[in-house]
Amino acid sequence: MKKLLTVFFICTAFIANAQKSTENLVQYVKPIVGTQRMGHTFPGATVPFGMVQLSPETDTASYDLNGHYNPKVYEYCAGYQYEDKTIVGFSHTHFSGTGHSDLGDFLIMPTVGKLKLNPGTVDKPHSGYRSPFSHANEVSEANYYKVKLDEHNIIAEMTTTTRVGFHQYTFPKSDSAHIILDLMSGIYNYPDKNVWTYMRVIDDTHVVGYRLTNGWARTRALYFAMTFSKPFIAHGYKNYSKREVYGGFWGKFNQTKDFPEIAGKQLRAYFDFKTEEGEKIKIKFAISPVSMDGAVANMNAEATTWDFDKVKNDGQAQWEKELHKITISGNKELKENFYTSMYHTMINPTVYMDVDGQYKGLDQNIHKADGFTNYTTFSLWDTHRALHPLFNIIDPERNADMVKSMMAHFDLSPEHMLPVWSNSANENWCMSGYHSVSVLADAVVKGNAPFDANKALEDCVTTARHKDYLGIGYYMDMGFIPDEKDANSVSSTLEYAYDDWCIAQMAKKLGNTAIYDEFIKRSENYKNVYDPKSGFMHPKTADGKFRKNFDPFTTINQGFIEGNAWNYTLYVPHDPASLIKLMGGNKRFIVYVDSLFSYNLPDKYFAETEDITKDGIIGNYVHGNEPSHHVAYLYDWTDKPWKAQEKIRMILPKMYKPTPDGLGGNDDTGQMSAWYIFSSLGFYPVAPASDQYAIGSPAVDGATVQVGGGKTFAIHVNNQNAKNVYIQKIVLNGKPLDKMFLSHADIMNGGEITFFMGPKHK
Amino acid sequence: MKKLLTVFFICTAFIANAQKSTENLVQYVKPIVGTQRMGHTFPGATVPFGMVQLSPETDTASYDLNGHYNPKVYEYCAGYQYEDKTIVGFSHTHFSGTGHSDLGDFLIMPTVGKLKLNPGTVDKPHSGYRSPFSHANEVSEANYYKVKLDEHNIIAEMTTTTRVGFHQYTFPKSDSAHIILDLMSGIYNYPDKNVWTYMRVIDDTHVVGYRLTNGWARTRALYFAMTFSKPFIAHGYKNYSKREVYGGFWGKFNQTKDFPEIAGKQLRAYFDFKTEEGEKIKIKFAISPVSMDGAVANMNAEATTWDFDKVKNDGQAQWEKELHKITISGNKELKENFYTSMYHTMINPTVYMDVDGQYKGLDQNIHKADGFTNYTTFSLWDTHRALHPLFNIIDPERNADMVKSMMAHFDLSPEHMLPVWSNSANENWCMSGYHSVSVLADAVVKGNAPFDANKALEDCVTTARHKDYLGIGYYMDMGFIPDEKDANSVSSTLEYAYDDWCIAQMAKKLGNTAIYDEFIKRSENYKNVYDPKSGFMHPKTADGKFRKNFDPFTTINQGFIEGNAWNYTLYVPHDPASLIKLMGGNKRFIVYVDSLFSYNLPDKYFAETEDITKDGIIGNYVHGNEPSHHVAYLYDWTDKPWKAQEKIRMILPKMYKPTPDGLGGNDDTGQMSAWYIFSSLGFYPVAPASDQYAIGSPAVDGATVQVGGGKTFAIHVNNQNAKNVYIQKIVLNGKPLDKMFLSHADIMNGGEITFFMGPKHK
């Protein structure tokens, strides 16, 4: 009977899935979400994990915590701010949701009338090639962006393949139409990001070139190949840098007009056309991290058509396939939140290799990916928490390729370390910890390791023993980082302890007892920075004494990075039970976490919080940044797990809205969105590298997760609504679940779970 | 009988050759010749046509016509000026004898004592790492250079393979010995040549990196791999450029000391050692135009030993082989002049590809040379005259590879032109004409064309029809370049006419009548700028009138480049007979040329003459620059060829001495030296692309030229000395020669020629 019932349920799941699979899910994706204020997402076109991410630039140099222009505060990271009134053009590379900036390569802008090669200023938009625009004339979809450029009466449309951007510009009738290629433009150009650029006009429809920048990536080269659908009738450039050595020799040709090639530090080029009313000029724009020849090969492989709609549709079909990995039941707003989040989890990391497998390695040499797709844009301090665990469920093969990319990074790392923040063949060293070990360990522990797992363990161990890096030496020798040795001594100690636990889990899985012993011991180091007197993780000096001047509310100079002691004290994701004990037991712990959510943080503390709007904070709980993402789930280790359910259902609608200002903090290359996916499905990976998920409170009415091999994990949610947030009962594959945890196998084996919800906690 | 005699003579030649072949000829090579004043040669180490040319830098920014420091006058081109008192270090790339500068990559300097990372100044040598030195402690040989660095009491020695520089530094005992790698240093750095540099310390004996410069080559990248014979005990760097974007992130490591990698615009690095008295630290330093991996591969292929003497001896053996292609009889001074000239003809062009055949093309992509060695450093305005014709006799295979390199350049040229001045995957456009066609035509006409000769002709024709380039359009449409359209209208018209004749000869050889007809007609365009009234080639305006204000002595604004009307009027190398007619016939022509040599040029004219010392001028005849190199031989077309003999024997000792100041002008990558080789052997290629050589007056007592296939061309000179400069009789292969011309076949078929000399002309 039991067996039959299971079969019945599975069949139901399949039918539900089959029914849902035809629904257009791209319709729910709103790339515009997060473009206002601090989300740092972009509204432009990309396929999943595309190397080209083609999006408008609104040229906001910097903005303040409310997303308003302020040159002295925050960087403009994704190229587009919803409140801006003008567009300067469309560039081919973007980060999604980061807190620092780079990219924005190869800006293209169509104009008519008198040629202006300067972008002009926000205050005087007519002084340059920029154009005012209106959101009323803007369409932003997965792999499609459209906007009317009011200044020029041009409709701009764009779509992409993995390595090629497709532009389609519908012009008015003009004897003086231009397409500008601005090689100077870039995101966060301060102080002088361009190192060198080169451009070669092969004929009147083909141009190639490259750009070398010194930005967040210290030495980043990107190559391009550009094809016009219609021959230009003239072309030229202007060099905005100071005079060059021997510049006069090249003057033997008139290089300004119709030059065959040009190189320099600050170049803007233009291409002239005559257009009829409604005439479309299209551009294919391929990029390569390897060479101009590589860009041409990428173009030839991926851009075989001038049919813009076909390219758009092919790309949207890729999105449909990815989005269908989780189908949900719920209202439109829920689906918009959910599929926009799904979309945002599939922008970064990005493919970083040519169609022939060649890519630039961290050693600045050209390498060939052997049997995997090479990725870059790893914001691992953020993404190890939920993004990579999500990939391990719905896209394990890609996650394994990402692990292989990280191991290839290790092999070429001059410091012999796994990536911290990998950006286009460069290491940014952004943020703390060595959280790549979490990603590698999570894959190994969860059985998703089609790579040399023992080599992966070695890479982790080598990284974790790098005594010269950010206090690791002190940490290894003393069990903590002394306050006087590092500004972030406490958060680094906590993060290393978690990472070390990951390494221990991996070693355990691989049967390496010596490494397990070494690192399980290190993983307890968090205890060394807990001060029972203050009741917080607390900066400690080398003499073993806790610092006297201490403010647990501020994030400034208290030993923590991007967080205060109140939040960071809870950062022991790998051993909440011990943490609870350390903090005085179940009751005191609950009071502590309750207080975090209910405290009314004075404005003076808010003002110093990076990368998040005030909306990204609930009480003193900071959801707009990552260190607290696991916090609500910690109630599962107390006797009041219903408090987790309550808090999660409070956070979800507050922090995620299907509107431009719908994200309360940086999306951080998808981590914020991955939290949404897990939490709205009802569970969350509190400690990646364990095979356990803590249960929260599902916000969907039901869901089917494709877990590979044709299997599905069906989530049924009975009687859920905004008030019925409390779990009354859980049935897993026909059996009551008597704990607040799911295992990875529970999900990946396929099956079904049913949540019975009610308005009161049990 | 006749036959027997010939056999006898040939046997004699063979015996003579066999006897001479064991003589050490490297002993006569004095690389120091031309390093004083305007020769612009360098004294350092290289194998023939080496990619690495490792030589000391004396850091003279610029100097005047007498070779004295003057920052406002001339560039420092080869890195070394004999009169300088200090050496700043040893760099790996140099031009030999050019008039403009670039290169000087990767400067290495050993020091002891307090670390100084600035080179210091000439006035205060102790303020930096530079060292005083003395010529008494200097040895400069083919592929070997040695000097004592007085400041540091270090003996520096260097030698090379084609792609690897070998350094050997003998230190005193020191606890503080350093080897500095200065990535900022370069030749003619003004105003800001370095674009970007990168360095990666792999371990304590291996370093790789690259440098991107914007110099005479607009965009030049060079990669390196460096290996120390002894592990350094510490290393560090200083960045002399302004702060970098996000520079702080890399500060997570202490990168100043023992950094793993660094990148920036202005870097100097150091490596620390402890040394015993007399301890040798050696460095292998490989370069590549392709990549760091390429440099490593070049290192592995060529630098398999640490035996410095072996590398030196192997390289000198290469020189012996090359030098033995012409063995001569004569005194020591003659041999020093001759073999130093031979040496200087084999420095440039330079190999420009890795051991695997990969090289960077003019399109900035990586290419693979298919069946040839790729070369760069083509100073064709100079070298088409005698250097490439010399190669067609003694090294035809290499010359054909150079032609193939030039054709590969054409294939990648965005302007679709053969090289004008090719420098490391860049076109400098230096000087006028399209003289590569002379090189291609000379090879084809002389039967040295193991390449697609018809394609070569096409490349020439396409180049010659490039209407946008330097007045070619006017030249094609009007038969001359109007004075008002180009500052060098007359010299360009003359040069194009000669080049066009070359194309015609090539077309004739290939049976292409249409091209022959077109270009033989163009080759007569020189007539259009001859003014019978002034008696000179004369600037002419578009209305067909000759310019009124005209000074045939000055080189400034008279329609000529690097020459005056007096010299340039004789520039019709392809048709002296017609020129003589045009200028009023035999008698008037002789008076004209006589006057050229006897005129006492006022100092005011001398002061404006570029690239030559006053010693480079005889009367108004300018031997120190190329346009007059054929002039003395023009007497062969008159009834007084003995005047050619007289003038040539006057020029030879005046212009070529085996002393540092022995060259009267830029050696121009070997053209000046090639003139010496030909002229001292007794003949000269007045018009390359003809198969004729005009006979002068041999200055050797005899010579044997290896012409390939085991054949030799023996030159016997009877009764020659400084007074006996006049030819009494010539016997070619046993037959009296009754003309003043030799054919290419006469030489290349092997055989012998005997000059009978006397004190009076016949």
UniProtKB/TrEMBL annotation, chains A, B:
Record bears the keyword Hydrolase: yes
InterPro entries for this protein: 6-hairpin_glycosidase_sf, GH-type_carb-bd, GH92_a_mannosidase_put, GH92_N, Glyco_hydro_92, PNGase
Keywords: Calcium, Hydrolase, Signal
Signal peptide: 1-18
Key word Signal present: yes
Cofactors (names): Ca(2+)
Protein name (record): Glycoside hydrolase family 92 protein
A GO cellular component entry from the record: cytosol
PANTHER family noted in UniProt: PEPTIDE N-GLYCANASE PNGASE -RELATED, SECRETED PROTEIN
Subunit and interaction comment: Monomer.
Highest rank taxon of the organism: Bacteria
Start and end residues of each Glycosyl hydrolase family 92 N-terminal domain: 28-288
Gene Ontology terms describing biological process: carbohydrate metabolic process; glycoprotein catabolic process
A Pfam family assignment: Glyco_hydro_92
Residue intervals of the Glycosyl hydrolase family domain: 295-759
GO molecular function: carbohydrate binding; peptide-N4-(N-acetyl-beta-glucosaminyl)asparagine amidase activity
